Amino acid sequence: MNKNPFNIINSDAPSVKGEAVTERDADKSLEITLRIKNLISSSDIFLFMKGVPEAPMCGFSANVIGILQQMNVPFKTFNILEDYDLRDAIKAYSNWPTYPQLYFRQKLIGGNDIVTELYESGELEELFKS
Amino acid sequence: MPFESVKSLIKENLPDAFIEVEDMTGTQDHLAITVYSDQFKGKMLIEQHQVLMDILKEKLKQEIHAVKLKTLTIEKAREKGLID
Fold first, then answer.
1. Which of A10, A97, B26, B40 has the smallest set of CB atoms within 10 Å of its CB?
2. Does residue B53 belong to the interface with chain A, where contact is any CB pair within 8 Å?
3. Closest approach of chain A CAs to the CA of B31, in angstroms?
4. Would you say A51 and A99 are in contact if contact means Cβ atoms under 8 Å apart?
């Protein structure tokens, strides 16, 4: 759980293994990438978050959920605390080190800071209407 | 002084940048970084932040614990009266 308003680089990132990637590893990573793509394609507006909309497990996730509910737009979410493989893989997939992560039409829009800034400037509403 | 090295690192990568670094906690490892650069033109906000996160990647593994970013193009910063 992370309550301070910063982009934290997690120190628990997986260490680089000193062994060659086996075919099995490659299959697994492909499978995980497919899972990520399937998730973010499941709704125009998609949020990877800590916890669930009814009970966010982090202040930042709660804030983004609050914004989406305020805007009254349909969205889907995935609780990354429930899947450690996915939790690390999504960071690599998106080149973004923290959660929550908001996607629109499969494209990463941002975390709490960016989503808040875009919401306050009206750009988020414009984007969702596009 | 870590601020100066953060500034010069950003300047090396974005030569046209206006850069401000603020210590948010008094511990010099939680920084609020504001950058105006025309290298951000045509980029979404997330892409602008990714440019900076990439530049700061190594520092974030070591002396900097966390950053809060604010990015604008020079044009936008002028429009808002933030620079002359």
1. B26
2. yes
3. 9
4. no
ipTM above 0.85, yes or no: no
- Domain spanning B2-79: CATH superfamily: BolA-like (3.30.300.90)
**Tens digits of residue pLDDT in A8-20:** 554 444 545 555 6
Q: Give the chain B residue nearest A103 (alpha carbons).
A: B46
Fold of A23-129: Glutaredoxin (3.40.30)
Measure in Å the smallest separation between the Cα of A39 and chain B Cα atoms: 20
Domain ranges of chain A: 23-129
Residue with tokens 């290298």, as numbered in its chain: B39
Residue B8, class by beta-carbon neighbours within 10 Å (0-12 exposed, 13-18 middle, 19+ buried)? Answer: exposed
Q: In angstroms, rounded to a whole number, what is the distance separating the alpha carbons of residues A108 and A119?
A: 15
How far is the C-alpha of A102 from the C-alpha of A81, rounded, in Å? 16
Task: Delimit the domains of chain B by residue range.
Answer: 2-79
- Of residues A60, A56, A108, the one with CA closest to residue A79: A56
- pLDDT by residue (tens digit) across A89-108? 999 999 998 999 999 999 99
Residue B31 β-bridge partners: B23, B67
| Amino acid at residue number A87 | R
DSSP state letter for A76? E
The C-alpha angle with vertex A19 and arms to A15 and A23, in degrees rounded to 5, equals 110
Residue B66 sits at the chain A interface (C-beta within 8 Å): yes
